[in-house]
User: Fold this.
Amino acid sequence: MSRRKAFGLDNQTIARTLGEIADLLEIKNENPFKIRAYRNGADIAANHPHQLATLDLPALREIPGIGKDLAARIREMSETGGCAYHQELVAEFPATVLDLLHLQGVGPKTVATFYRELHVRTIDDLEQAAKSGRVRALRGMGAKKEALILKALEERKRFAGRHLLSEATEAASGVAAYLREFSPAATIDVVGSLRRGCDTCGDLDLLASGASAELMDAFVRYPLVERVLGRGDTKSSVLVRRGFQVDLRLVAHDSRGAALQYFTGSKAHNIALRDRAIGLGLKLNEYGVFRLADEAKVAGVTEEEVYAALGLELVPPELREDRGEIVRAADRSLPRLLERTDVRGDLHVHTSESDGRDDLADMLRAAADAGLEYVAVTDHTQSLTMANGLDESRALAHAARIRALDRRHGIRVLAGVECDILPDGSLDLDDDCLAALDLVVASVHSAFNQDRREMTDRFLRAIENPHVDIIAHPTGRMLLKREPYAVDIEAVVDAAARQGVALEINSQAHRLDLNDVNATLARDRGARIVISSDAHSRQGFDALAWGVIVGRRAWLEPRHVANTLPFDAFKAGLRRNRAR
DNA sequence: GCCGTTTTCGGCCCGACTGTTTTCAGTCG
Assistant:
C-alpha cells in the first residue's frame, strides 16, 4: 500500500473546508438541503476511519452521503490542496465572518445582515458596531438584541466554549443532584453529547420527566447560575460558573423514553430515525412515536419501546452517531459493548519513583481496590528528567521491587516502564534492559513539531523494536489544548498490527487517545488494543471509566481489548512472550 | 447536493423560545 499522501491532506482539513462551505452557503441563504449535504459531508470526513485523500472518485462515491459534487471537491482538495468553490465563496464573504457564527444568538442571517449593512468582517468590527449603537438601528434588531450581542462577545472571551467529558460530567451531576433534591418525584436524566460519551461537550443537556412546573424556577435559581439565557415552561437555558451552558427540558412521565431518545441525539442519528419512522407510517418526536394515519401514540414511555416501535433493538447512547448502528439494530446484531467491569488489568501506571504522587505499595493497593486483577507499573525513563525518569540501573532495581510485591496486595503485577521514543525513533533505555522487563510501553514526549514523515518514521522504528509491547497515547493530542502530532496514524496502526504491538486508549480525560475513530481503525486493521489509566495517583484508576467510554464509542467488545483477558492469558499474549 | 425495489424529479426531521414582528423570522438543539 502506498503511503504517499498528496499534501498530507487529512480528513480534518477536508471536514473543515466542507463545513466552511456549508457555513458560507448558509450566510448566502442558499438551498438548505444543499447546505445540509455539505454539513453532512464534513461530518463524514471528520469521522471516516480511512484517509479520504487516498481514495479515488468511485471509492468516494461509494460512501453514503458523498455524491458526484462532494466526491469531486474532495478529489480536488486531495490533488491541489485547495478548493475553488470554497475560494469563490470566501471572495463573497471573508472567511473571518465565520467567527461571528460562533457567538451565542448570532446565526447566518444575522451575520449576512451585519456584513451587508454594517460591513462587519470580524469579531472586533462587530464589537465596535454594537458599542456605537449601530446594531440596534438595523431592521429586525433592537436595543435588547444589541445588548445580547455585547454579552455574547464578552462571554466568548471568558469561556472558550467546550469542556472535557470529565468536567462536564461533574458539572451535570451537580445540577442533576440539585434538581432531584428539589423534585424527588421527577426523574432527572443527563442527555445530549454527554450521555453519548463524546470526548468534549459544548453544553450540558438535562431532562426532567414528571416534574411540576416549579422545577423550572428552581433550575434558574440554581446557586451556580451566572446568567439565564432563556426561560420557558418546558425549556430553559442557563450559564453556570466555569462557563457551562446547561439546558433543561421538562416532559411528562409518559414521554420520558421518547424525550431521552430525542435529546440524546446525535442529530444525525435522530434524522435517520425519523426518516425510518416515516417509512413505517410513523412520526417520531420528543413526546412519542405516533401513527401518521390517526395520530395515535404507539410508544414513548421507555426508550426500549421507542426503538422497538421502529423495529429496532435499543441502541446504546455511545453508538448513536449514524455510523451504521441503525442497520445493525434492525438486524438485532449490535455489539455487546465493553463495560468497565470487563477490564481486568491496567497497563500504564506511575508511582513516586518517577512523577507519580503515591508510592508503589499504595498504588498496588488502590489498583486492587479499583477491582483490577493485575497492573503493570510503568514509570518514566531517563530522558524525561523533569519527571525523574529512570535510567537502566534504576529501572531494573525498581522492577525487582515491583516483582517482589506480586500477589502481596491481592493483585498480580508486571514490572515495566513507559519508555520514551526519542526523536530518531530509538528508545530511551538499552535493549538489554528492556528485554529484562515484563512489559514495555513506549511513547512520545518530545520534539512534537517534527513533520509528518519524520514523526511517522519515528513511530514505525519504535514499533520495529522487538521489546516494545504497547504504544501509549499514539497521537499525542491534548483535548482543548494541543492538536495531535502530525503522524500517519494509518501507517502506525498497520505496523502495530503487523508486529503484534498493542495500541493504547489512554483514559486520561484530557487525552482519550486513541480516540473513538482511530480505535475503530485499529480494530478494523487487526491491531491489538489496550485501555489504560495512565494513573499518577491512587485516584487515577477512576479514569478507566473514560477510556471504556471511548472503547464503547469505537464499537469495541471485550474480545477486542487485550486487558479484558485474565492475567496469565494476557501475559502470554504479549508480543515478547509469543513465539514468532 | 443527495438519493431511489412505486421515484432520475421531487422530495429531504421537528419543535421551543426570543425579540421585534402586529403574524413571524431567526436561532438553537
Observations:
- Residues 476 and 484 of chain A are 5 Å apart (CA to CA).
- The first strand of chain A starts at residue 163 and ends at 164.
